[in-house]
Structure formats: C-alpha cells, structure tokens
C-alpha cells in the first residue's frame, strides 16, 4: 500500500479527529486522486512558512499542521535558550476562516512550552506584526494569513527577531522539527484562560496600534500639501473585507484628509470575501463597487488593500473619465519619484540614498532613481530579500534606503517594520495625490509626465498554473530543460542576447559563450535579455502552484512598449506549458 494511503488510514483511525473531520476524510474513501492530493506529502515549511487549502489532511491547512509548525517553532526557540523564551512570540491574524482559532491555538502551544506570547486582540495588518516584533523585542512572530489568495486558503507566516520573515537556516530547523513530530501526540498545549491568568499570554490592543500609527505617520514627508487640498479632496478606500478596515482610514485622517469615503459593503470583516471573486487588489473586478461610488461622488482616486493589509492597489480616473487600475510597477515608480522629489524639497534626503526593488520589478525605477542621483539595488523576489538588504545597509552604513517595493503591489518606507505595508503605502499614495493636486494635476497626469520624462516602459506578468503533484514535477522539469536540453535562443521572433541563471549566479553572452558572475545567486530564476533590451524572466512561484513569466520592455512611445510586451505574451505561453 502506498505511503499516502497508509497516512490516510492513520488519520481516519485517529482519536484526535473530531467526527466532522473524520467524515470529511471518509467522504473521499476510494478516490485515490483525492486521497493522494491530501496525503502525498506534508505541507512544506519554508521561509514563507505554510500556505495551503483549508481542510483535513497532511497537505492541508488545519489545526494539526498549525500545531506541528508551532511545536517546531517552539523547539527552535527553546534551543535558543531561556532569554529567547522570555522574549517570546508576537501573534497576529487576518479575516480568513479559522485565522483567529489558529492564532489562539498557536498561542496555547507556545505557552505550554514555557514561551511568552503577545497576541493581538483582533485582526491586524501584517506589517503591524512586523512592527510589534521590533517594538517589543520578541524573538519571533506568527501571522495567520494567506494574503490575497482565494478564500479556500489560509497560511502561517513566521517572522524572526528583526521583523522580517524567518531566515533559511531557522526555517530549515522548523521544517526538520516538524518532520520528526507525530502531529497527533507530540504537540503540547494548554488552556487559553489558564495561560492568560499565568501571564504566559498577554494581549496587544489599541496601545500597540497607537505606537505603530505614530511610526507610520513619521514616514509622511510633506503634510502641508494635504492641508492645502483637504477641504475639497475626496478619495475612496476599500479593505476588501480585511485587516486594513480600521487603521488605513485612521492614518488618512491623521494625515489631514477630511473626506475619506469607505466602501461600506467591503468594510465588513468576512473570510468569504462575498463582494469579490478574489480579494486581490491587482484585479480591477474587486473595485467595481468602489468605481460606482467614485462616479457618483466625482472622485479621481481609489485605494484598496488586500485582506492582511500588506499589498495596495490603486484605481485612477483617466483623461476620458474611465477608471483604470495602476500596476504595482506604476505605483512603485510614482512613489519612487515622489519620495525623491519630496525629500529634496523638504531637505530630508539622506546621504547615499538608495531605492530597493526586486529583480522582476520594472527597470523604470532604476532610471528614475539614478537620474535623481539615488542608487538602485535589485534583490530576489520576496520582501524578505528586500528586508535583508535594508539590514545590510543598516549594519554597513553604506546606504540609507528611502523606499523598497515589488511589482506585486508591496511597498515599504521607514525603519519601523521589515515587511511590505499597505497602511504606510496608502498614506504615501494619498499624500502624493495631494501634492499633485496642489500643482493642478491628478495622479494619472503625473504618470503620463513621468513617461515623457523618463521613457516609456511596459510590463506584464503571466501566471501559468500547474496544479497538484504533476504540476510540481512539471515545474521542475521545465526549468531543467531550459537549463540543459532545450535552452532558449529566441523568444518569439526576438533573439536572446544574454541569459542569467540566478541559481548558479552566472550570466552568459549567447553570441560568444562568454560568462561572468552576477551578484544574485541561489534562486530558481532564469533572466533573459533580448537583443532589443526587452527583459524576459521565468520563475516558479514559491507560494503557489504556478510558473510566473515577467516581460519588461521599453519603447519610443507607450504603444511601441506595449506592442513589444504583447508580442511576447503568446511566445511565453508556448515556452511555459
């Protein structure tokens, strides 16, 4: 009998399951594919923690996988000594199904292991957890969230003492500890009320919010421009049924805005995300209600944050009166330029200023930064790598970072946290909009002006979904083929000039075969530079069953840049299949 079948039967027979959980498993009896999908392997624990579909089984998010991950983390903390246990763990959660229960469960497991816990009294933005770790000096943090994934998902993110995601060495320890546990018998726990009365669990409340909001407001650069337009400027905000619902409107109010219109239907905390197909601020569909409101109220700007309030989406009214979504690249470039200009204007630009972006993020940011005398550095995809770079700057004193962002709608400014922050991003976007309003411009006008000033860039990300076990195998096979038996020399009609393999850290010129080392290495990414300067990147996602292809082009005008990208979209689908 296969391993997954043995594991399935072990779970069905376990006394640890409730009747409901057992019935869920009995319902798939005889369906080998369904059993294999739930039991072929445990949910793997990586630097991003766990993420998966909610349900009973080894390869699902449930109280047993959360329990094993927490016991694994507890073992890591205990191995760091008594001081680490005393420092303890901060815990936050979002609006998803079971998020509050998993957070409470994790708190009880840590407490049973003699580890102090600080638990938020209700859902909070992810960045506020990163802040709390640094503010209270905890050894680690846990966030129960699946960010902007569909409602069927939940996740378990772990942070380390600097407020960034768990480093690889520590993540490996947790994974190893998890692998050695019996999920049913090896996880300690204790009664929640008992842990509270013994002082092992302490609650975080509005006082932590106040400390956090104070730090966020300090990132604001030019509040005077908000004061100038506050009487007449209206903007719309939606939290997509999630954790930004309280603190984003609050920070906009403290910034000086008087007319913040919130999308009432989406201010309701609901893990089903009933008003949207997907609670992802990248998708225009989620903004439909907000756009109707904007039309009725003559509003130019809509801001939306995802369920755990770490990503930020923006919708603008264009010259024709249509409402359009900005990409993460466009918002990031607008903020890069605004932050640089505002810091120069207010005399707050540090020496050796730097902007950070991920390698799959638009090159327009580099042009904007460097033309203004600011350095620009690339990191791998994932905010943990940007956080690592910020830490290196802090340690070496070589640069002062002023802004970090990723094309996937994540932005950070300020030293108080080490993860992308939709609360701060919303504040800076609103401040930037006010600044341009004082110049008689909208953010849409500002974007067009930037293209004229810095060049026309276009980008597109394509996700090719490869579900299940066969999908994971195909992803590995594809990357292997591209490196060995089937290397790309052309993408569509365009010749490849250079290929950088960011696993080995080597860049090869195809015409000569000449190779050189590049700064980034150790990640499964292939980075192609085409003869006309267009960039084409292939990367398997670290958190979802998909391969991502990033296309980035520059053209003489908007249309030529977009045409270059469009021509490569079909080529990408032919390559990645």
TrEMBL record:
Its cofactor is Mg(2+). The keyword Membrane does not apply. Keywords: Isomerase, Magnesium, Metal-binding, Phosphoprotein. Residues 523-558 form the Alpha-D-phosphohexomutase C-terminal domain. InterPro entries: A-D-PHexomutase_a/b/a-I, A-D-PHexomutase_a/b/a-I/II/III, A-D-PHexomutase_a/b/a-II, A-D-PHexomutase_a/b/a-III, A-D-PHexomutase_C, A-D-PHexomutase_C_sf, A-D-PHexomutase_CS, Alpha-D-phosphohexomutase_SF. Its EC number is 5.4.2.2. GO terms for biological process: carbohydrate metabolic process; purine ribonucleoside salvage. It catalyses: alpha-D-glucose 1-phosphate = alpha-D-glucose 6-phosphate. Pfam families: PGM_PMM_I (PF02878), PGM_PMM_II (PF02879), PGM_PMM_III (PF02880), PGM_PMM_IV (PF00408). It comes from the Bacteria. Signal peptide: none annotated. GO terms for molecular function: magnesium ion binding; phosphoglucomutase activity; phosphopentomutase activity. Pathway: Glycolipid metabolism; diglucosyl-diacylglycerol biosynthesis; Lipid metabolism. Residues 44-178, 211-321, 328-454 form the Alpha-D-phosphohexomutase alpha/beta/alpha domain. The keyword S-adenosyl-L-methionine does not apply. Belongs to the phosphohexose mutase family. This is Phosphoglucomutase. It comes from Candidatus Butyricicoccus avistercoris.
């Amino acid at each position: 009998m296969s391993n997954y079948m043995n594991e399935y039967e072990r779970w069905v027979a376990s006394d640890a399951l409730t009747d409901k959980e057992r019935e869920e498993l009995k319902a798939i009896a005889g369906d080998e594919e369904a059993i294999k999908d739930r039991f072929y392997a445990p949910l793997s624990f990586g630097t991003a923690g766990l993420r998966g579909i909610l349900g009973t089984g080894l390869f699902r998010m449930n109280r047993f996988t959360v329990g094993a991950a927490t016991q694994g983390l507890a073992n890591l903390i205990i191995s760091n000594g008594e001081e680490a246990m005393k420092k303890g763990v901060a815990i936050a959660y979002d609006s998803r199904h079971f998020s509050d229960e998993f957070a409470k469960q994790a708190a009880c497991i840590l407490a049973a292991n003699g580890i102090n816990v600080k638990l938020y009294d209700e859902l909070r933005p992810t960045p506020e957890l990163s802040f709390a770790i640094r503010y209270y000096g905890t050894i680690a943090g846990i966030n129960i969230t699946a960010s902007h994934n569909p409602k069927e998902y939940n996740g378990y993110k772990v942070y380390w003492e600097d407020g960034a995601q768990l480093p690889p060495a520590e993540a490996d320890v947790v994974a190893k500890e998890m692998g050695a546990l019996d999920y049913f018998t090896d996880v300690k726990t204790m009664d929640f009320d008992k842990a509270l009365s013994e002082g092992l669990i302490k609650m975080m409340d509005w006082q932590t919010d106040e400390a956090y909001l104070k730090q966020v407001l300090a990132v604001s650069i030019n509040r005077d421009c908000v004061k100038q337009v506050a009487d007449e400027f209206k903007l719309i905000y939606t939290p997509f049924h999630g954790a930004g619902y309280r603190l984003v409107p609050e920070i906009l109010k403290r910034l000086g805005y008087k007319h913040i219109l919130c999308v009432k239907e989406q201010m309701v905390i609901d893990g089903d995300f009933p008003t949207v197909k997907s609670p992802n601020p990248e998708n225009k569909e989620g903004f439909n209600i907000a756009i109707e409101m904007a039309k009725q109220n003559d509003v130019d700007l809509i801001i939306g944050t995802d369920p755990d309030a770490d990503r930020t989406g923006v919708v603008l009214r264009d010259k024709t009166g249509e409402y359009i979504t900005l990409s993460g690249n466009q918002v990031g470039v607008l903020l890069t330029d605004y932050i640089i200009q505002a810091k120069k204007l207010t005399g707050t630009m540090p020496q050796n200023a730097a902007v950070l972006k991920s390698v799959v993020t638009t090159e327009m940011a580099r042009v904007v930064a460097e033309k203004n005398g600011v350095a620009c550095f690339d990191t791998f995809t994932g905010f943990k790598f940007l956080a690592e770079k910020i830490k290196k700057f802090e340690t070496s004193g070589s640069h002062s970072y002023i802004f970090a962002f990723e094309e996937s709608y994540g932005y950070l400014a300020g030293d108080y946290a080490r993860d992308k922050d939709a609360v701060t991003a919303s504040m800076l976007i609103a401040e930037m909009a006010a600044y341009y309003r004082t110049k008689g411009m909208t953010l849409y006008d500002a974007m067009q002006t930037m293209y004229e000033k810095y060049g026309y860039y276009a980008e597109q990300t394509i996700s090719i979904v490869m579900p299940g076990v066969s999908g994971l195998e195909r992803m590995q096979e594809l990357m292997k083929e591209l490196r060995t038996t089937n290397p790309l020399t052309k993408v569509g009609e365009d010749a490849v000039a250079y290929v950088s393999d960011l696993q080995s850290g080597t860049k090869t010129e195809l015409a000569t075969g000449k190779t050189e080392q590049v700064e980034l290495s150790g990640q499964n990414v292939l980075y192609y530079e085409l003869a006309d300067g267009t960039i084409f990147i292939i990367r398997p996602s670290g958190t979802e069953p998909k391969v991502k292809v990033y296309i980035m082009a520059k053209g003489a005008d908007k249309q030529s840049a977009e045409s270059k990208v469009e021509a490569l979209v079909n080529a990408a689908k032919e390559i990645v299949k």
